[in-house]
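Structure tokens please, single chain.
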Amino acid sequence: MKREEIFGADNVHEECGIFGIYDNGDQLDVSRLTYYGLYALQHRGQESCGIAVNNRDEEDKIQILQYKDMGLVQEVFNPLVLKELQGFAAVGHVRYTTAGASRRENAQPLVSRYQKGAFALAHNGNLVNVDKIREELQEQGAIFQTTNDSEIIAQLMAKERIRTNSTAEAMMKVMTEISGAYSIIVMTPQRMVVARDPQGFHPLCIGKIKNSWVFASETCALDSVNAEFVRDVEPGEVVVVDKDGLHSYTDLCGQKSALCVFEYIYFARPDSVIDGASVHNARLNAGKFLAKESPVEADIVIGVPDSGLDAALGYSYESGIPYGVGFIKNRYIGRTFIQPTQEEREAALRIKLNAMRETIAGKRVVMIDDSIVRGTTCGRIVKLLRDAGAKEVHVRISSPPFLNPCYFGTDIDNRDKLIACKLSLEETCSYIGADSLAYLSIEAMQNLVPECTRGCCDACFTGNYPVYVPEEANE
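Here you go.
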């Protein structure tokens, strides 16, 4: 049973977060800084995590050491493990399963050894042509140890590096063979190579600590290690860092960009800035638009932690209805807190999320959440409010209804799992037990981040996929 069946059946999960650091003579503790960076990115993946480092042995030869396992960052790593992971460069990863099974061998970074040496790879995203490439590689004799997309990229990277003169050239060649979403960090014994897909589906940014370079899925991870934000990696860009500094390759840049709009609605931490736009402000805007589009007479506005909180503030600002703290979230439940029965799942939800009776009792409540996927958890949360004495519960969702699968790194993988594909608005409202229900409009969603420097992908709402998707064509 997957974690979302208990805690997040109505939440969308993103595949992972990546972090890399290259110490350019500053004597940094790269493994500890990577640990802090992964801690800041924990919201992007809670199933497994890992760190790989470049280490010089007694003969001054560079070797790649790694440690990874199932669990949260704080569960997997301790001071003794980090002490063993000493080096001058490190790459880290936190994972949530969308492609590939949830097991240890699929944890990242992946360390691969081939004719020219070794490299560690961390990847955020999903490839849409992975089946075709895997079949071609297997016909050529390739052997796979995992079931995730990242090993496909590693296999291609090794093959192209043998044929080309540089790691950057190999990466750009690989990027012409793969299609879909990918933010990648590859660490070789001499350098770090970073790439973002030409559509820029998921965020990737560059920071600096003194003379050293840092790369992360979100700016909040840069903040956690006191790194100065430099810029975002451009869609289609390859960045290489070595002892001579940072080098940029933009041969594949210039295509129409399509940053996942759900980064602003749900995935990213509110203190992050993605492609020039504040996540916090985007969620405030979502709440304000909701208040304009779907007003209701009520006594209090509350948000479902965490991503519903900022949207609830926006709804309150725009509507004039007071904002209140409606839920207290228990943040100390690890990934192993999973129960098999319906009764135990109900108890688990109550332990994770508790309603504030003093805020809610006797009130007409507007409850703001970021999304409804399957409808089950939303219904349980509405029931928590009813049990706490809410007089009315009006649910407002800060995104449009999910009508289409996502193939680019989230777990919205089947229309059969989407409540909006099966029930009307009125039927969904009845199913979750609310007095009223309204979603954010497509038009409002497309105006959440006017300051964003990229175009956005909204295919899960509109069905307009920015790249050709073989699975969708087959359906």
